[in-house]
Design brief:
This protein is mostly helical and 157 residues long. 68% of the residues lie in helices and 0% in strands. It has eight helices and no strands. α2 packs across α8 and α6 runs parallel beside α7. The longest helix is centred in the last third of the chain and has 26 residues.
Length: 157
């Protein structure tokens, strides 16, 4: 945790915005330093994500893109995903986000297409809640990755 707690403000801002592109979220997480351990940091990151307004989430969504398909995905899969994403964006007005942490590369395409098709049936309010939770999960995973990249490899999550 020391590299995270000791990072200068600009480096920490850059790291946090790479996890979730929300100025409010990154400020809240940064302002509560120092964190005694990874679990405390993750709890604070989750709490900050739960408190985001739709405007904050929209800011974060603007920086997101669709998850990448595995390199060996066939062209029809790219076409199907493109069509599903276009329908999703037309319905909800923002990019589709999903946290695929722990999903094997062989299952990414199926999980992605299944999720986007399923979520197209959500009403807008329900989808906002799902989207907010997916962004929170993405931020958590990216934060763990950033910590591991900073030399905190003793993380057991």
């Amino acid at each position: 945790m020391e590299p995270f707690n000791a990072a200068c403000a600009e480096d920490l801002r850059r790291i946090l915005l790479s996890c979730l592109h929300s100025a409010r979220w990154s400020r809240r997480v940064a302002d509560h330093r120092p964190y005694p351990d990874v679990d405390s940091l993750l709890a604070a990151a989750d709490e900050a994500a739960y408190d985001l307004t739709w405007a904050d989430l929209s800011e974060a969504l603007a920086a997101e893109s669709l998850p990448a398909l595995p390199p060996d995905a066939y062209s029809a899969a790219h076409t199907a995903l493109g069509a599903a994403h276009a329908a999703y964006e037309a319905r909800f007005g923002h990019v589709f986000v999903i946290c695929l942490d722990g999903v094997s590369p062989a299952e990414v395409l199926d999980r992605l297409l299944e999720a986007i098709r399923s979520r197209l049936a959500n009403d807008p309010e329900e989808e906002r809640a799902v989207t907010a939770d997916e962004l929170r999960r993405l931020a958590r995973g990216r934060l763990l990755d950033a910590l591991q990249g900073a030399g905190n490899c003793a993380i057991s999550h």
